[in-house]
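Researcher: We're teaching a course module on how sequence relates to structure. For the next exercise, students receive a sequence and then see the predicted structure as C-alpha cells, so they can try to spot secondary structure elements on their own. Here is the exercise chain.
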Amino acid sequence: MIKGYMMRLLLVGGCALTLIACSGKSADEKAMENAELANYTPPFVMSRLDYGGVIERRFRRLDANNNDKLEPSEISPRRRALVMGFDTNKDGAVSVEEWSRGMLVRFDRQDLNHDGTVTSFERERARELHDTDLPTPDDEPANGSAAAAR
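Model: And here is the predicted structure for the students to work with:
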C-alpha cells in the first residue's frame, strides 16, 4: 500500500514538474520582456493645437516676475540666444506674442509633412538636423518655479 502511494505521488509530482517546465517562458525570457516593457517609450504625437497650450504654460512658468515679458535674466544661459531671437521688435524682452510666434515657427519646421502634428519620427529627424527639440507637457516642471522650468 505504501509502495503504491509513493508511486502515485512520484507520478503526480513528475507530471507537475513536466507541466511547469513546458509551460510559459523561462525566467530569462520573462526578465527580458519586463525590461523591454519598463523601457518602452510610447510614440510621440502632438498637434499644433495642443502645442499652443504647452507654449502658453511654458511662457508663464518662465516669466518669473510676472510682467508678461521674458527678459534675458529669466532664461537659462543655454537657451537664452534661442529665446531672445524671438524678440522681433528688439526691445530686449520677448512678449507672449513674440514667444508664441517663435515657438510655432519651430513647431512648423519640425512638422515635415505639414499635417498639423509632430510625430516621434519628425522629432528625431529635427534632432538629426540639429533643431532644438519641442518641449512637451511632460517637460513641464511639477511645481511652478521658473528655475525648475529652465
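Model: If you want an answer key for the exercise: The beta strands are 45-47, 69-70, 94-95, 117-119. Residues 45 and 119 are 4 Å apart (CA to CA).
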